[in-house]
Each structure stands twice: as structure tokens, then as C-alpha cells.
Amino acid sequence: LFGAPYWLPHPIRLIGKLIAGAGQKIRRFGKGKAGQGPINPAVELWQGAGLVFLVLASTGAVTVSLLLLAYGLHPYLGIAAEAVMTYQALAAKCLKTESMKVYQALKEGSLQQARHAVSMIVGRDTECLDEEGVAKAAVETVAENTSDGVIAPMLYLAVGGPALGFFYKAVNTMDSMVGYKNDQSLHFGRAAAKLDDAVNFLPARLAALLLVAVPVTSPGVLLAPLLCTCLAPVAGQFGWGWGLAAGFIHMTIVQNTSILHGGMNLYNNGFAAGLVCILLIPIIKSISPEPEED
Q1: What is the pTM assigned to this prediction?
Q2: pLDDT 10s digits, 140-180
Q3: Alpha-carbon distances of 213 from 14, 206, 252, 259, rounded to whole Å
């Protein structure tokens, strides 16, 4: 809704500086005499793996330490720290703001301004792009960053809080900085690129489903997270995994109950939640028996 102020130091920028600085120092150890090229590709692979370990260990240590310190001082301060970190891990507002600059420049017919605007959100050379190329680059990066900057961070934050959220952001930032198939990064950035592929395997497919099959502006998607608190007991009784599954099934059903009851309303939301429970709870109990109460 508000976005991150550009003047405020952002954790992702700090992670980027760590990657750049540590990457330069690590690569010096594999240089030959007089600073000539690396000894062999295997050295670069190990250097890249070392960079991944260093960045992830540093990011995790700082994030966990700050949270422990905040909670140690006061529980409310810990909650506030988690809220701020969660807010900083998401990039929905920034993605919209920067992509709309491209749209406005193209709408006004300023190709040079559009090239500059799109250069702020892509990693390629934009000076040779025509209007069609600028538009394609913008659409491509918006689609990619919907997964990398919104969907994937939300999932990792939901599973592991800010610690896992910033773990993901560190992996993603490393891939965007060194995960290229060129002479400089082909071997050095392979570890970061492969790890980024792994952590994005499920989020990318979920993002594709939401973008293509379920428009994010559809009433069902908006109502499901806002009004499906009636399914909270599923997560409370059987765990967050089943609660997440119930939420996704609910999102699908709630969009179709209007066929029976006319319109999207609170009654349809409750009706859909009831169907979810009727369908899902017997399956849950057959797979994993209900835990005994103390």
C-alpha cells in the first residue's frame, strides 16, 4: 500500500552490497599470477558456493539476532520488528510504481524516458530497445517479479517468518547479481542460480496459476483471504499445512458458489467454507489422526 521510502536504507540493498563486496574478495583467491584469469572452472564453482554460504549465513544470523534482541527487550517490540521485516520483504508497491513509470512514458510517447524507466527494473541493456521491446521487457519483469517479489516471499514468510523470508530474498538477490550465463558468471554464479531455481520451484508455478487461471483482482481471490477466517480452526487443529490447503480450496469454491446463490457475498463465503470442511476434514483424519488433547 505505502511502499518503501527510497531514502531509507533497505535490507535488500545491504544484502546486495554484501554480495558485491564479498564476491570480489572471494574471487581474488582463485586468480592466477598478476591477477590473470581463474585457475579453472572448478575453482569458480567452489568460490560461488562459498559466496552463497557466506551471504545466507550472514543474512540469517543478522535477521535472527535482531528478532531475538527485540523479543528479549519486550514482546511487543519483537512483534513490531517482525512486522517491519515482513513489510520490507515484500515489493508489491515498488513493482507497481516502477512499472507504471514505463507505462506513462510510453503513453506520452517518450521512448528515451521509457528506456530509462525500464532500465531500473531489468538487468539488460535498454538503449537499443524500440517501443515494443520496452513494453515486452516491462511485462516480462512484472510477471517474473510478481513471483520473486510478492508470491514467493509471502509463502516463505508464512512458513518461517522474516528469517526464512530474508533467506529467500538473499538467494533471489544473489541470482539477480551473479546468476548469469556469461564468461564472468557462468561458473561462479551457478550455485546461486541453481539454488534460486530450487526455492522458486513451487512459488513460480503458484504465481503462474494465479496470473493465468485466477486473476488477482477477481472477487474470489480478494474475498478468500479477507473473509475465510471460518477456516482458521482447520489450521489450529491440524497445522498450518492443512490450513493453507483449505484456504486454496476455499478460494476456488467461493468463486463458483455465486452460480447457486447469486452474487458474491458473505453467505457464499460461509457456504464455500462449509463445503471445504465437508470435503477436506475426512481426508485429513484418514491421513493423519486428530491429535489428542492434553
Answers
A1: 0.64
A2: 777 777 778 778 888 888 888 889 999 999 999 998 888 88
A3: 36, 10, 10, 18
